[in-house]
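Deliverable D4.2, example record:
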Amino acid sequence: MDESVIQPMVLNNSTLQVKLQKLRDFVSNYSSVIVAYSGGIDSSLLALVTTELLGKQNSLIITAKSPSVNSKELEYATSLAQKNDWNHKIIQTSEFQNQSYRDNKADRCYYCKTELYSLLESICDDKGYEVVFNGTNFDDLSDYRPGLKAADEKNIVSPLLECRINKLEVREIAKELALENWDKPAQPCLSSRVPYGIEITMKILKQIEEAENYLSELGFVNFRVRNHGSIARIELSENDLHRILEKDLRLKITSYLRGIGFKFVSVDLLEFQSGNLNKSLKS
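Output generated by the structure prediction step:
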């Protein structure tokens, strides 16, 4: 291990200390690791712990760049990696060339993750790394996630899942370890805003990216803009629903979204919940 490796911090909460130590023990079983890193809190925690334990020379933190990733999210992931001095690399993925991905059926995520994991598997073999980690946590088992199948097929290892660490525990551990994005809302790919069965196009993804970046600039934090063809359906957190009652703000948002191609702009009366589009698969 490199002598410059940062010494682990000690958590005050005994339960979290146990979970963190379990994670550290798990990671320490490997000599060199590639981490599939999106800038979200799950993969950020893995990047931090892996680099801490194995050193930069044995930890490669890789972020995928594709049309389905908001450019601001990519910039944030890069900035966070630089601040923490991780061995960070950006690769271009080509899932958009796969018609099965663009068809946007319920298994869309499988094709996206297969593309990513195939590239990471190749880099792992070429560069002599032992294993590839992803940020799947224990709570992810409770939702429909076809990407898990792709991970199994490519022998991707999920340390948070193996250590039975859930999302809340990830955030609390990350907070104690001073990761700045410990409370950052999840930001899955832009394609997840498109209802299953509607073919994904570059135009659709660009509309979603521009719409969500605009709402973010207006101060909204935890939300989604779902693309239903000519209709933009905005889902807001309970705390933000009252803001949308302001007429001037509604007109401002409507004007902007119509300007980028939507004919109608609506607000869902129910508060935003991650994975809302998956509910249609259960009905």
